[in-house]
């Protein structure tokens, strides 16, 4: 008789988001949960308070070290580091590891924002500043709040989630002057075409929206683009008192 499959550990996000059946209520545990969320946001703000110029790099955790994208992520992170940008990743393997390695080689902060998962990926050995979050939305806040740009490599659902959430924030002007660079042009060209044919032509997005994504593969070009946008950010952005 086969052994029973061990239960998947419950995560904080699952406890927050999932109802467990008829008559179940989260209300009794919400005050404590809200306090933990507040503490987690404060933890991230305090740990990252000194980050002024950074780029968040996303991509597949399954990219092996001998893949061209791994080598390219390392090179781009190193180039951005030479321009004074710290590097933020999810702290895991694959593209994240490559970017953290490039940051370390460039002598800038190599930051990994880990997340509690049912099946842990672990932290790559090239992270110098390691944070671990229980809630996805708190972690996402850190990726955007402390970055001047996103560089997005081919990846799975998590990569696409970060990409389209950032696009939504830009489109709705929740964030401004924020470049999103898609690296691995051959991979992303189909998405760009789909956006133009299926979203722009029927009028679901504007022409400006369709221009929010930049396809680029050259580390020097990407570095120059992001440095230009960062200069523009610093010149034009005036935060409100609140």
From TrEMBL:
<protein>
    <recommendedName>
        <fullName>Cytokinin riboside 5'-monophosphate phosphoribohydrolase</fullName>
        <ecNumber>3.2.2.n1</ecNumber>
    </recommendedName>
</protein>
<keyword id="KW-0203">Cytokinin biosynthesis</keyword>
<dbReference type="InterPro" id="IPR052341">
    <property type="entry name" value="LOG_family_nucleotidases"/>
</dbReference>
<comment type="similarity">
    <text>Belongs to the LOG family.</text>
</comment>
<dbReference type="InterPro" id="IPR005269">
    <property type="entry name" value="LOG"/>
</dbReference>
<dbReference type="GO" id="GO:0005829">
    <property type="term" value="C:cytosol"/>
</dbReference>
<dbReference type="GO" id="GO:0102682">
    <property type="term" value="F:cytokinin riboside 5'-monophosphate phosphoribohydrolase activity"/>
</dbReference>
<dbReference type="InterPro" id="IPR031100">
    <property type="entry name" value="LOG_fam"/>
</dbReference>
<dbReference type="Pfam" id="PF03641">
    <property type="entry name" value="Lysine_decarbox"/>
</dbReference>
<keyword id="KW-0378">Hydrolase</keyword>
<dbReference type="GO" id="GO:0009691">
    <property type="term" value="P:cytokinin biosynthetic process"/>
</dbReference>
């Amino acid at each position: 008789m086969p052994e029973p499959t061990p239960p998947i550990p419950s995560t904080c996000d699952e406890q927050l988001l999932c109802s467990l059946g008829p008559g179940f209520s989260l209300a009794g545990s919400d005050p404590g949960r809200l306090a933990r969320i507040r503490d987690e946001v404060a933890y991230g703000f305090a740990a990252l308070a000194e980050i002024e110029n950074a780029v968040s790099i996303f991509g597949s955790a399954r990219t092996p070290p001998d893949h061209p994208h791994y080598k390219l992520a390392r090179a781009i992170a190193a180039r951005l580091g030479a321009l004074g940008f710290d590097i933020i990743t999810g702290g895991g393997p694959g593209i994240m590891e490559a970017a953290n390695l490039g940051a370390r080689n460039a002598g800038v902060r190599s930051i990994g924002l880990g997340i509690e998962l049912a099946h842990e990926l672990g932290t790559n050995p090239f992270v110098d500043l390691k944070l671990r979050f229980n809630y996805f939305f708190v972690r996402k806040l850190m990726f955007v709040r402390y970055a001047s740009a996103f560089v997005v490599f081919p990846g799975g659902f998590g990569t696409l989630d970060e990409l389209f959430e950032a696009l939504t924030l830009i489109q709705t002007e929740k964030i401004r002057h924020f470049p999103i660079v898609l690296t691995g042009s051959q991979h992303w060209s189909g998405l760009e075409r789909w956006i133009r044919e299926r979203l722009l032509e029927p009028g679901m997005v504007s022409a400006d929206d369709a221009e929010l994504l930049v396809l680029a593969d050259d580390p020097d070009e990407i570095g120059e683009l992001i440095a230009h946008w960062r200069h523009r950010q610093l010149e034009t952005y005036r935060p409100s008192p609140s």
